[in-house]
Fold:
Amino acid sequence: MAYKSKFQDEETELLFSAILSLETKEECYRFFEDVCTVGEMKAIAQRFYVAKLLSEHCTYQEIEQRTKTSAATISRINRCLKYGADGYKNTIAKLHAMR
Structure:
C-alpha cells in the first residue's frame, strides 16, 4: 500500500515533482530562493540540522547552544524522529550512506 500523507493534494504533488526534477545543488538554491523567504529556508534547514544532531545523540543543551533552537522546537523534532512518518530518519540514513 502506498503512503498517504496528510499534506497530499494536487498543489503539493506538483511541488514535490518539481523538487524531484532538480539535479544539482545550484538548481536547489535557485529554486528555493524563489519559492521560500530567507526565514522559511533557514527554519527548514535548522529543523533538519536539529534532527541530524538528535540522531547523533546530542543533548538538547548541546543542540540549543549550537543552533539557538528552543527546547520546545527540539522536542517537537524529536517526537517526529520517534513517532513521525520517518522522513527525517530515511533522509538522514541516505545521507550517511552517501559518505
